[in-house]
Amino acid sequence: xxxxxxxxxxxxxxxxxxxxxxxxxxxxxxxxxxxxxxxxxxxxxxxxxxxxxxxxxxxxxxxxxxxxxxxxxxxxxxxxxxxxxxxxxxxxxxxxxxxxxxxxxxxxxxxxxxxxxxxxxxxxxxxxxxxxxxxxxxxxxxxxxxxxxxxxxxxxxxxxxxxxxxxxxxxxxxxxxxxxxxxxxxxxxxxxxxxxxxxxxxxxxxxxxxxxxxxxxxxxxxxxxxxxxxxxxxxxxxxxxxxxxxxxxxxxxxxxxxxxxxxxxxxxxxxxxxxxxxxxxxxxxxxxxxxxxxxxxx
Length: 298
Fold this sequence. Notes:
It contains 7 helices and 8 strands. The strands form 2 sheets. Strands 3-4-5-7-1-8 form a 6-stranded antiparallel β-sheet, sandwiched between helices. Strand 4 and strand 5 form a beta hairpin. Belongs to the ZipA family. Its main location: membrane.
């Protein structure tokens, strides 16, 4: 029984494989028959008669064309015409339109040093700076000269003699101490908010010389001397002045020396150099020359 069953299964399997093979072959042929027929020009031209003027191979008869042998120039697709180079046009120079630079355009004007203005001493200053005493005291000298010498001619020459008392950077003069020292030396607080040395130590008579703050604002606030600090003082006298000029300068020089000793400073001349014996002699010569010129003008 088992052998017979095995034989039956083998036969069924073979039939099944043969059926599958036949079905696949049939499917392939069916697909080939559905493929569209491609056009081949050789199939249509085999039986077609040759066209007129052409042989079987499609070659036509020879024709003679006039102008043969001459090459026809090919026309370029794009034609460009060279533009002539532009020549620079020479224009005549208009001398009237040419401008000459002025001094304001070419020259640099250096700023001038600030000048101490006694009319604006009440304005606050950001930082103390050295006052331009030469220019400032010239202005003060003119004012005092007009007050004390009204009977003299306005064209009479004048001169200012200046001495400085300067302290080192680490030292300062306190306002109250300065006021006490100036009182002992006979100075009186007065016009221009500065101190003056009069002919009389009590403050009477004309002004012999004056004392101002070397640093801006250049003045003193007599009501707030306890808040004042400065490193320098300026003593100056004007020529002509009351009394004997040489004697007045000697008093001013002695006052400057005493202030320098009191506060630990140095006495400087008008050029802010250390005052020497030779510089003092130079001041004396200036005073004598001024007196001589004054006598000549009379």
